[in-house]
Amino acid sequence: MTGPGNEMAAAGGGGAAKAAGGAMPFGLHLSLFLRSLLIQAGWNYQRMQNLGFVYALSPALRRAWPEPEKFAAAAARHTATFNTQPYMAGFILGNVARMEEAAAASGGGPAAEARIMGVRQALASSLASIGDRIFWGRLRPLTAEVCMLVWLAAGMTCWIVPGDCAGAPLWALLSGPAASVLFYSGFAFHIRWKGISVGYACGGSSSCGLDAFDWSGVIKRLSLAGLVLCAACIAAAAATLLRPGIPASGAFWAKLAVPVLAFAAQRAARRAGRSMLFTVSAVLALSVSGWAALGILNWIRGA
């Protein structure tokens, strides 16, 4: 089936049209990938990620428009406002690179330029919503949970029991952050790299990348993984606090109760369809209430 990008390329023939019909050259793919890591570097309040997007796309623009004047005009077009989830930008970079090649092959023109910018904007909005739910809403909490579980496996329990890590080796201290960085970065790098090739393959489509993965399935599986790891963290923290030798003071019960209350509040808020702000507020309210009750109880006992 011929996509919009292929139709644009077929209209003009020539070398760029042949390039648009195959896979992206590895060198170009690598260049776009490495540059996309800096897409946030030029962030500004006026046009957000536009400078980073132009910088990342420049190798593809130079390939499509080798004449300096035409390259400058293409780059200037892409300085328009651009904003998306940074790890999802690869889908848009690949798509736009393919469309620019097709536009160059067909001679360009206002219609082709308007279509490129329209597809760019449509994908930026759609992929931002998906990326925010995956990376900010699920992978970041998962990363913290991975760090805590690795610390527990390495015997680092001072984040639960103060002073419990005396004499712990440096590798144990670094094991949690290192595992969490590898976990998060591995997922992010895969999406960044894969997105460029997927976008290039379906260039010209305003839904390009939206059906590249079962995004709703990915979100559900990450949510389930977060639930399981959260329960594991609570269970491990409880087991640590309940081990022999730790006094069962008011502070002890507060430490044991807070994660349980936080977990229960999150599940209750999710079932009720309430927002994350409501969940955080509920957790804080329960925590403060519990600590206040303990403080009053200790004051009464002291009086």
Descriptive notes:
The structure is a single chain. The protein is mainly alpha-helical and 303 residues long. Among the domains are: 4-125, no CATH class; 247-303. Helix content is 73%, strand content 0%. The chain contains eleven helices and no strands. It has helices at 4-12, 14-21, 26-36, 50-64, 68-77, 89-105, 110-153, 170-201, 215-241, 250-271, 276-302. The protein is elongated.
Supply Rg.
Answer: 26 Å
Helix content: over 70%
How many beta-strand elements? 0
Please count the helical segments.
11
- Residue ranges: pLDDT <50 for 5 or more in a row? 1-20
Layout of strands and helices, then pairs:
Layout: H1 4-12, H2 14-21, H3 26-36, H4 50-64, H5 68-77, H6 89-105, H7 110-153, H8 170-201, H9 215-241, H10 250-271, H11 276-302
Characteristics:
11 helices; 73% helix; 303 residues; mainly alpha
What is the compact description of this entry?
The chain has 303 residues and is an all-alpha fold. Helix content is 73%, strand content 0%.
